[in-house]
């Protein structure tokens, strides 16, 4: 599935002093358990994921329209009514993005991320 590959990118000064890098973007991902169409679902920032018929990486690589909604998920939770969708978030190439996982539920949530060079800070 790796249709293109890249290597780790140092910070602008050419070193790997990650604690000194100012993130270019912050994304807060808030999980919830809303009822959508009468069924209990799980959602991130108000969007409950629907698995598409075409794999996301293939749809992106071959530019197949209508498979997913690019940047439809907001960087911060909006509190709007939850809905079903195939939301994908993009980021600028070689940018440093801070991702905050926000859990307002009474139960523990687990997450899965695809990408490279993740650093857990707290």
TrEMBL record:
SUPFAM superfamilies: Cupredoxins. One of its GO terms (molecular function) is copper ion binding. Residues 53-122 form the Plastocyanin-like domain. Belongs to the multicopper oxidase family. This is Plastocyanin-like domain-containing protein. It comes from Nymphaea colorata. The lineage of its organism: Eukaryota, Viridiplantae, Streptophyta, Embryophyta, Tracheophyta.
């Amino acid at each position: 599935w790796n249709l293109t590959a890249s290597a780790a990118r140092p910070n602008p000064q050419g070193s790997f002093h990650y604690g000194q890098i100012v993130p270019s973007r912050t994304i807060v991902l808030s999980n919830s358990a809303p009822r959508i169409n009468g069924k209990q679902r799980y959602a991130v920032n108000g969007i409950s994921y629907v698995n598409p018929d075409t794999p996301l990486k293939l749809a992106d690589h071959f530019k197949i329209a209508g498979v997913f909604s690019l940047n439809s998920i907001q960087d911060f939770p909006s509190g709007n009514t939850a809905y079903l969708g195939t939301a994908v978030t993009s980021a600028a190439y070689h940018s440093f993005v801070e991702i905050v996982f926000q859990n307002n539920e009474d139960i523990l949530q687990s997450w899965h991320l695809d990408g490279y060079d993740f650093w857990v800070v707290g």
